[in-house]
Amino acid sequence: MAIETGTDTVKRGLAQMLKGGVIMDVVTPEHAKIAEEAGACAVMALERVPADIRATGGVARMSDPEIIVRIMEAVSVPVMAKVRIGHFVEAQILEALGVDYIDESEVLTPADEAHHIEKHGFKVPFVCGCRDLGEALRRVGEGAAMIRTKGEAGTGDVVEAVRHMRAVQSAVRRLHQGAQRAL
Amino acid sequence: MTAKIEHALTTIGVLALQGDFIEHESMLRRLGVSTRQVRSAEDLRGLDGLIIPGGESTTFCRLMEDFNLYRPVGAFVQTGAPVWGTCAGMIVLAGNASDLAFPTLEALDIEVLRNAYGRQVDSFETDLDIAALGEEPFHAVFIRAPVVGSVGPGVEVMATVRSEPAGREEPVAVRQGAVMATSFHPELTNDVRFHSYFVSLVRTSGTSAGSK
Fold this sequence. Notes:
heterodimer; A: alpha/beta; six-stranded parallel β-sheet; 7 helices; B: alpha/beta; seven-stranded mixed β-sheet; three-stranded mixed β-sheet; 6 helices; 26% helix
């Protein structure tokens, strides 16, 4: 009776468990505690919230590992954390810390303009952002286990996220309904 | 043919506050059972059975409290209608859950340790021998699963997993009368045998709880 870990099923399985819930951005263990008590189904650790990244500028990176560990100790809900696009070493650090999900995120400053992280080799699942179905499928091809829309983080302008969601949903529906020849 | 018709008369509710309730519903539909998403006391009316799905247990409890569902769901369990909890659902049904800031329904005489198999990187798949489902092993998916720490005298252990470091056989599927719980997720597989087992439990129990 073999026991298998890090499979696509368990990676996607956690995403399925998060459905219908709120994943709350947090910077400190105190934020995480408040989010958990308010009913968040997971927390997302990042160095600064997107609005602050926009306001103060500079290079936005993965959170301090020490703070991430303290967040993991503070709450029992899954802890996610963001890494820079293409920064596989940040991802290796998060995997070693034992975070539950990695967000390879455009909210942080990209580390590689050509490539995203090759995610299949990791045991920890990844979530990535997208603006349309093509982008979503490229991330899935690289090993993402969960997809979110990008939006324009930190602006407060939700229409960007809605536009991306509409684009993905309508492309999925078109593929479902389109005639074989049209594909 | 008759079996199909009897199934059609059966309605099983799935607690739909958060988590993978849609996956449970599609398994039940494959078996020809009608389903209902439960978000209020009203939704429990006339149900023949209830599934509490996988998800985040603190979120479930927070929402059950905010939507005043603790009492009605507890009362539904009291009627003796079959109830099944998977993963977070097992935690909600347990007699006691470690490190949970909310009360449980105390419907099952078990003590559970939340996330005791470890974090997500330790989530796993394995084959289980479950006598109640027949010869063929059941492929089980465990996602940040709870460990059943102790089991009361009236609780039947349906399946166990050998925990790696301790080498101890830990219960992962339990049943006490009409209340059943699994720390894994049959709804994440293509194997309908566990859902089919629950449906037959519902059909033989034959009490339409909410109608009283």
